[in-house]
Design brief:
CATH topology of the largest domain: Beta Polymerase, domain 2
Strand content: 5-15%
Number of domains: 3
Largest sheet: 6 strands, parallel
Structural class: alpha/beta
Number of strands: 10
CATH superfamily of the largest domain: Glutamyl-tRNA reductase, N-terminal domain
CATH architecture of the largest domain: 2-Layer Sandwich
Helix content: 40-55%
Low-confidence stretches: none
CATH class of the largest domain: Alpha Beta
Distance between the termini: 8 Å
């Protein structure tokens, strides 16, 4: 196996506006399929990570080639885009920096929202797509499995993702604190804009489907109702909807409050508790609603305090996550060193297998044609067992020497002793 170099070409929320990220993301829908293209013989392995906040191409490139130019050419050939529009926003990293960067990405340290939990799943999905396309080879396989392990450890062993860190997730967590298990509550979302859509996504991720949507345009709201059990209603039906809801998340764009104290008072009967979370600016809910019995009202300022607390807890977890990454980097370094002797071990076993088969065929010819199949099977097993046992200890020693930095010396010696061609296998 020729010596390879790790490389990454990409852009992210750190470098490019969302409009550009969207354009490139759409261009990258075909994933890593083009890696086996004969037009890119030096591009040996590839994984494409494409999310709303980043598009990154991770690659193993043959040593001595200009990896950055090769990846840009790959991007242009397989996913035609106007490179002049993207070139100022692209970044290129190589070598050990790629390893550290991917681990930070998988652990949530490089996300727009610190500790974002979704990115680990996106990294895993990108890796699995590359495996399915046979685009990820031994180097990227090790890199991505190590990064995914680091991401899982970060979430399991630290608080980097344990607290809600978006307005929508804080809103839902607060509502659950007051109303109890939201799976047993009727939820009403007011509005169908970006904030409302984020709230609906957060509800879906928690498996909450008893959700109604109230909006001026029913048609637009119906586009967001997929996977939910509740109805779509007009804003003129708010009084009735309020009488049937346990939790209201309001995120409509309106110049004046849509939900007033008299409206809520008229809609509520008995001792039922109502939680209103107003994430709209300007506010959708009249402040006087807070004074009604059994009604709990929270606005953006209340949520911001919870969000700041959550993010502060995540920031405190960063040193722990960085320590986990350092541990995983050490483990990966050992694995990468062992990887350097893998072609040698493969060549050694290939030579041993050729000799085994040659001598086995000679022995079978000597024993004659009247051997029963069971005896042939036992002789075959004996020959394989002898080879495996003879090579077992040398294989372990070669891997051990690789971790000690002696791989090159032992490779030269073993290839000379066994007359192995350096390009064999």
């Amino acid at each position: 196996m020729p010596t390879t170099q790790l490389a990454c070409l990409g852009l992210s929320h750190h470098t490019a506006p969302v409009a550009l990220r969207e354009r490139l993301s759409c261009a990258l829908t075909s994933g890593p399929a083009g890696v086996m293209d004969d037009r890119f013989p030096g591009l040996e392995e590839l994984v494409v990570l494409s999310t709303c906040n980043r598009i990154e191409i991770y690659a193993a490139v043959a040593e001595g080639l200009d990896a950055e130019t090769l990846l840009v050419d790959f991007l242009l050939t397989n996913h035609p885009v106007d490179i002049s529009a993207f070139r100022p926003y692209l970044y290129f990293i190589a070598g050990d920096e790629v390893i550290r960067h991917l681990m930070a990405v998988a652990a949530g340290l490089d996300s727009r929202v610190l500790g974002e939990p979704q990115i680990l799943g996106q990294v895993t999905e990108a890796y699995m797509q590359a495996v399915e396309a046979r685009a990820a080879g031994p180097l990227l396989d090790l890199l991505f499995r190590s990064a995914i392990r680091a991401g899982k450890r970060a979430r399991r062993e630290t608080a980097i993702s344990s607290n809600p860190a978006s307005i929508s997730s804080v809103a839902i967590a607060l509502a659950q604190e007051i109303a109890g298990d939201l799976r047993r509550r009727r939820i009403l979302v007011v509005g169908a804009g970006t904030m409302a859509e984020l709230a609906l996504d957060a509800l879906r991720k928690r498996g909450l489907t008893r959700v109604a949507i109230a909006n001026r345009s029913r048609r637009h709201a119906e586009l967001l109702i997929a996977g939910l059990d509740g109805p779509v209603i007009g804003l003129d039906e708010l009084p009735v909807a309020l009488s049937q809801a346990d939790v209201v998340i309001s995120a409509a764009t309106a110049p004046a409050p849509l939900i007033t104290a008299p409206m809520v008072e008229a809609a509520r009967s008995g001792d039922g508790r109502l939680v209103l979370v107003d994430i709209a600016v300007p506010r959708n809910v009249e402040p006087a609603v807070r004074d009604l019995p059994g009604v709990h009202l929270f606005n953006v300022d209340d949520l911001r305090e919870g969000l700041d607390t959550a993010l502060e807890a995540r920031r405190h977890a960063v040193p722990q996550v960085e320590a986990i990454i350092e541990e995983e980097l050490e483990l990966l370094d050992l694995e990468l060193r062992r990887l350097t002797v893998r072609p040698l071990i493969a060549d050694l076993r290939k030579r041993a297998e050729a000799i085994r088969r040659q001598e086995l065929n000679r022995a079978l010819r000597f024993l004659g044609d009247d051997l029963d199949p069971e005896t042939v099977k036992h002789v075959e097993y004996l020959s394989r067992s002898l080879v495996n046992k003879l090579l077992h200890e040398p294989t372990l020693r070669l891997r051990e020497k690789a971790t000690n930095g002696e791989a090159a010396l032992y490779e030269t010696t073993v290839r000379d002793l066994f007359a192995l061609d350096s390009t064999e296998g």
